[in-house]
Amino acid sequence: MKVAFFGAEGKVGRALVPVLERAGHQVRGIEIGEEPDVAGLDATVDFTTPDAAPANARAALEQGVSCVIGTTGWDPQPLDALARDRGLRVFVAPNFSLGAVLMMRFAQQAAQYFPRAEVIELHSETKKDAPSGTARATADLIGGDPVIHSVRLPGLVAHQEVLFGGPGQLLSIRHDTTARESFADGVLLALVKLPELPPGLTVGLDALL
Ligand code: NAP
């Protein structure tokens, strides 16, 4: 596929662009300040900032191009109507790592059996939003409005632990992303499945598995 990558020079972009190219995609990086000229491409991929992602997506949809978006910390719901009107797709995942999606699924299962849970999410000190999109999505799946603790320190990539407490026992479900290449499989899957999705907004890797 011919793909525009918004944020190709960012931490995630630098890790993912070579993987997408090795998988056979033609990737054009678009950086901040560059015209989002994507007409004629098959899809855009966005790993930028919560301020930039909505405008990038609108520009792509107005040029007839569907979007795969990993940027967190913003509400993609308003894009649904525009995408539907144009017969295009917007796929947004708060986490493109398969292990993290499984961690969320297992947490949802465990929540049925434990009265209390708290979420600890740990990320690189440069992450702009808190709590993380994955922690918010996990809290929604667990229900009951669990407390989310956000840790931002150098040396971290992306990690999350969901702690369940009950009388006399604790259950801990943890996922660690040790390198940003972990997001590649999810992005590749989203690009392949994009044309099969219904027009409009789809959220979460779970919808593709
Ligand atoms: P980052 O290192 O700060 O990279 C963001 C990149 O986007 C920077 O190169 C930035 O350029 C560029 N940028 C900003 N505005 C832009 C625009 N309008 N057009 C094109 N490029 C623009 O951040 P990151 O760690 O790569 O993370 C990026 C986003 O992905 C964050 O929201 C993060 O939470 C999210 N994320 C999601 C997942 C997932 O699985 N869904 C995984 C990891 C990260 P400048 O440096 O010049 O500003």
Short description:
The protein is 31% helix and 28% strand. It has 209 residues and is α/β, with parallel strands linked by helices.
What does this structure look like?
- The chain is α/β, with parallel strands linked by helices.
- Helices cover about 30% and strands about 30% of the residues.
- It has helices at about 10-20, 50-60, 80-85, 100-110, 135-140, 185-195, and strands at about 1-5, 25-30, 45, 65-70, 90, 115-125, 145-150, 160-165, 170-175, 200-205.
- It has a 6-stranded parallel beta sheet with strand order 2-1-3-4-5-10, sandwiched between helices. The protein has a 4-stranded mixed beta sheet with strand order 7-6-8-9, with helices on one face.
- β4, α3 (about 80-85) and β5 form a beta-alpha-beta unit.
- α2 packs parallel to α3 and α4 runs parallel beside α5 (about 135-140).
- The relative contact order is 0.18.
- NADP nicotinamide-adenine-dinucleotide phosphate (NAP) binds near residues 9 and 127.
